[in-house]
Every structure is written in structure tokens, then in C-alpha cells.
Write a structure and sequence with these properties.
By secondary structure, the chain is an alpha/beta fold. It is 35% helix and 16% strand. It folds into three domains: 74 residues, no CATH class; 55 residues, no CATH class; 265 residues, Rossmann fold.
Amino acid sequence: MDEHKKILYGVFGLAILIHLGFILSKWIAIAFGLSGVLLLIFALYKATSGHRIGMSSSFLVALTAHAGVFIYAYFFATAIDEEEQRFIRFQAPPPILQKNFDLAKRPEISEVQMEMLASLAPPDLPQDISAIADVSAVGSDLLGAVLPGTQTLGAFSGAKAEELSFDQVEMIELTETATPVQEALSLKQELLSIEDLDIGRYQAVIIQDPEDKKNIKGFFNMTIVDYDVADKNRDRFPTAAEELMRYMRDHTKIKARIAGTTLELSDPKILTAPFLYLTGWDAIFQISDTEKQNLGNYLKAGGFLYADDIRQSDGDNKLNNTDPGVEGTPFDRQFKALVKDPLVLGSDGAKWQKIPKSHPLYESFWNFPDGPPMGGAPGGNVFDLEMLELRGRVVVVFSDLNISWYWGDTQADSERERGLQFGVNLIVFALTQPGGIANVSQFAR
């Protein structure tokens, strides 16, 4: 009897599931229910021995009621139409962007057009342009645009001008209160060259060749940091940056120069500088809260600072008794205290790392498999550069190795060439690392 009860309870449980399925999807439930009818009849037949007449009557009544409800719902009930819900998202058309450079304010012909005109002109261009006997269609258009009313005599050649090749580039501009603003600009559409962009608005525009790391071009304006108590003859090396910029112009395709004279950290112009250069020896820092905040905002927004503990050689071109390459010097201690100030980088400013010889800095332009040049710090106890990182981006490189000595002292030892090459590596790395102010290679395609 217990066995029969189990079968009965199981069957009724199945019936309840079929009813629930009917609620969820009537056609699936009906198909499932019909397939289970025979099983239900068989189970009830086995479980109700001696009462089969009553069971059969009850079953027929229930089956008739279900059939009646189904027939009524199918043929007479009002159908409920389900309306499809459609969501329409309005997307405003992109605004018509104004050009980054107002060419209308420059009535003179651009450098690109002058170069183009010169390439189309005959070897001996006469003073009277109207005497040109044969010009191409592009040359004619340029002459008409530059000298309205000028007539060109003779038949046109009809030859097509060569396809001009322009680079795709993006500039990034910093404001005082915001992170870098990326401005995409097509040089081909704007008929501009790299030189046209060097008008003071941007401190650096660099374009890389993914196939050749030395095929890098653009321009770069270096910013030198000054502070109130810095002694020009001890804490600064005026000729160092000048010599490095000259070397960079001579050996790369980057038009490098110093942006103005020097800037203090309180000057908001540092926020647009892609590379800051700071040196010192034994001056006592007196850095204000405004200067600290400026420096902190600059480094967090994509800036790069190179600081060098410098020593200048004596009259015999020696570095003796000046402690080059020694840790714990006054400049070393004060500079590291500055960057870990809460207004600058806080705790992140104390996470100094030695730069390993496998770091991209040592191969950004020239290769330095043995690390930084050591000739500016003979007999010292420091053999590596140090760096600070924020979210994987190098923001500060610190040197106790007197690398600036190579740049500024024309009488430096025979390794001066390698010292200047390493200076180029520093700048190229700073300008091209992801997240930096002047890195456009990750956006320009």
C-alpha cells in the first residue's frame, strides 16, 4: 500500500508541474501533458485497486472540465496582442569641428605651399612670374591663390601633380585645470607640415616610425627649472642643455631647442612642458606650497622630470674633490624629500626603483646595454639611475651620476659622445612613452 501511495503522490506532483508549465507556455505544456495522460491513467489504475469505478468517473469529469476550458479559451476568448517594444535611441550628429589653426589669419603663403611651388618652378625662375611658359595644374592654382590677377602665358602641361605625402598626427594640449586634451589633426587635410605646428602652442610633436626607432621626427622645446636659491655656477649648468639641444638637432630629425630661458615651479607654463630638467648641488631648497602643488599636478597629468645631481670640472678638467656619484648628497636628500611631500606625490614619491639595464630607456634611440654612462661620476658609490612610476608610467628619473657634465663641458673625456647620446635617449623616451604629454604615436595611425 505504501508503494501505491508513493506512485500516487508522484503522479499528482507531476500533474502540478504540468499545470505550472501550462501557465508559462501553453503549447509546450499541452504537448507534455498529453504525453503524460496515459502515464497518469496507468498510475491511477494501479493505485486505486477496488475503487476504479469512482476513479474513472472523477478522471472523466476532470478531463471534461479541462477540455471545456481549453475549447472556450481557444475559440471564444478575446486574444491579447502582445505589442513589440521598440526602443529608439537618439544620437545627435557629431558637431562640425572648427580647425585647430585659423589659417585665415595667416595671409602669407604657408611653408608647404612655398616648397611645393619651388619644386614646380623651372631652375631659373624669372622675376616676372607671368613669363612662366609651362606650369602644372596645381602650380597654376597656387599662383592664382597667392598672386590674384597674375596671368600665366603658354599652354598648360596638363600633367598631374605628384601625390603629396602628409603625416597623420595628434597633438595633446594641457590646461591648468584639466588632464591632457587630445586633439586629432590630419596634416593631409589641413595641408600642414610639422614645422607649421611649431608656433608656440605645442611644446612637442613627435612622430615615430614603428619599423625604425631612429626615424623619429618632430620638434621639442626643452624647459629648464630654476629655483630661488640656485647658484648659476654651482647648481645649474647653463651650457648643458644648450649643447644637448645642438647635438639632438645635428643627429636626429627632431628640431630641438630650449623654450625661453628658465621657469620656476610656480609658473603655470610648466603644465604644458613635456620634459622638465632640474639640476642642483648644494643649494638649500625653499619650495613653496604653490610650487609643490604645480609639480604634483604636472607629474600626475603626464609630465616627466629629469633631475641630475651635478658637478662641474675644475680648471684642469678634473672632477676630483667634488663627490660626484655619491648618494646622500644635499641635492639627493632634498630632491627626494620634495617629491614625497604630500602636495607632490606623497607616498608614491618614496617608491624609488633602480632602473634595470633592460629598461626601454636604454634603447629608445641609441642602445646602452651596459646602462648609463659613468664617466661623470668617477670613484662614486652609485652605479644606476633611479625612477618613480605612476600607474606604470615613468614620471621622474633621478641621477647621482653627473650625466649633465658630458653635455655642458666640451672638454669632457672621450666618452662625451655617449653622454650626449644618452641625453637624447632620455628625451625620446619621455616624449614617446605611453601616457606622456607629447606621446602621439599611440593615437596617430
